[in-house]
Specification:
It is a single chain. Helices cover 16% and strands 30% of the residues. The chain is an alpha+beta fold and 187 residues long. Strands 1, 2, 3, 4, 5 and 6 form a six-stranded antiparallel sheet that branches. The termini are far apart.
């Protein structure tokens, strides 16, 4: 997947899923699904399209949420939603989108930054992530391959969600106990 035909989302929006999402409960660590790598999915299956819509719906009603992965709603699958629109740290913003079977193909400019997670509600931690990122994945519903080039906060959010799909929490990426903090603001 290279070339301009894979640049960006090609006008994809959650409305193109054609189904209304249902808000699902978010599971918290140490729920086993959060520590198991999820399988790849068929992005055109009705089940995955419904899951994608549910992830968007759940993310939208969760204050401060900029991303949500299938394992966080109890489903072992490589599907996640991201939307950093309006976040003060966001520079590059692709809007609300869902990716299936996503993988990082280029990562550079590594920086530490504070992260939190709906599945680890009481803690935050300092995690070193690439601040420039190229991700390839597939859009749910259409099955179209995409290649996103992003940076900064959106890059961090993408890496966080891809980790969820691989069975990793941000706590697995912190440098040590000295880089974990009690959450100060409860959303």
């Amino acid at each position: 997947m290279t070339g301009p035909e894979y640049a960006g989302l090609g006008g994809w929006t959650p409305e193109k899923l054609g189904v209304a999402g249902t808000v699902r409960p978010v599971v918290a660590a140490p729920e086993p699904v959060l520590s198991q790598p999820g399988p790849e999915v068929d992005p055109t299956s009705a089940e995955v399209v419904r899951l994608a819509a549910d992830l968007v719906a759940t993310m939208r009603v969760s204050p401060g949420c900029v991303g949500l992965a299938a394992p966080q709603v109890g489903v072992s699958a490589q599907v996640f939603a991201v939307d950093v629109t309006g976040h003060p740290k966001a520079v590059t913003v692709h809007g609300t989108f869902v990716l299936c079977n996503a993988r990082v193909v280029e990562a550079s400019r590594w920086k530490a930054g504070r992260e939190g997670c709906m599945s680890v509600p009481d803690l935050t931690g300092d995690v070193k992530r690439a601040s420039r990122l190229v991700v390839e994945g597939v859009l749910p519903g259409t099955g179209e391959p995409v290649r996103l080039v992003t940076d900064g906060f959106e890059a961090r959010a993408l890496q966080h969600e891809i980790d969820h799909c691989a069975g990793l929490l941000f706590l697995d990426r912190v440098a040590g106990a000295h880089a974990i903090y009690q959450r100060k603001v409860y959303l």
